[in-house]
Write a structure and sequence with these properties.
This protein has 7 helices and 4 strands, in the order H-H-H-H-H-E-H-E-E-H-E. By secondary structure, the protein is mostly helical. The chain has a two-stranded antiparallel sheet with strand order 1-4. It has a two-stranded antiparallel ribbon with strand order 2-3. Helix 3 runs antiparallel to helix 6.
């Protein structure tokens, strides 16, 4: 005998996703990756606050976020391998975090240090775009480069975390008072815009990241 319509059992199907299901599905390594991204965002905010307050401690803290992000970047990979929880989502998350911490972060800090000329802006934009392109290429080619293994044997171009060295240069410049109008190398008027030679370090770093012929063994 058929049950009245109000008493029919519910139709089974695809279960509704739980609230915050994406966060619930994160692995431990993903949380370290998010900490990497958080350091990058903090660096950007502190560099902007330095521009407002001219409090040198804000600049120092902004610079310190880069090595802190590097620590989290190293740990997330080690934890993923230790717990055997590597995933495509984790790899994409790692790249997005690296763009902030090792691309946008150093560029913002450089702007705060005094690289504010028109050609400086071009150099910093070029640097970030090279970093984004390098990470995108790595994600696409990682499976091929690993040759069927679990780990990539080498990098094509320098890894974007090497930009921590640029942050170190800016920190030394601040320590020596070589920021703003006192930047090393002075300022060059090239056509309508100003170029500070220090910006060429970012051009060099971006070019090395985007290189396809430069191969660096992955330890």
């Amino acid at each position: 005998m058929a049950l009245p319509r109000t008493q029919q059992p519910p139709v089974t199907g695809t279960a509704r996703p739980r609230h915050f299901s994406m966060i619930r599905d994160f692995h431990l390594a993903d949380l370290f990756t998010l900490a990497n991204a958080a350091c990058g965002v903090a660096s950007v905010l502190l560099a902007m606050r330095y521009l407002l307050t001219r409090d040198v401690s804000d600049f120092w803290w902004a610079a310190a976020m880069a090595p802190a992000a590097l620590v989290f970047d190293v740990l997330d990979g080690r934890i993923a391998r230790w717990r055997q929880q590597s995933s495509i989502l984790g790899r994409e998350l790692d790249s997005l975090a690296d763009v902030i911490s090792f691309g946008v972060g150093p560029a913002t800090l450089a702007f705060a240090a005094g690289l504010q000329g028109g050609w400086d802006a071009v150099a910093l934009i070029y640097f970030v775009c090279c970093g984004v392109s390098r990470l995108a290429r790595y994600n696409v080619t990682a499976e091929t480069l690993s040759a069927g293994g679990d780990k990539v044997a080498f990098f094509e171009g320098t890894p974007i975390p090497t930009s921590v060295s640029l942050t170190a240069v800016l920190a030394v410049a601040m320590w020596q008072g070589a920021v703003g109008e006192a930047l090393w190398g002075g300022a060059w008027q090239l056509g309508p815009w100003v170029l500070h030679p220090l910006a060429l370090l970012f051009v060099l770093s971006g070019t090395l990241m985007a290189s396809k012929t430069l191969r660096i063994p992955k330890l």
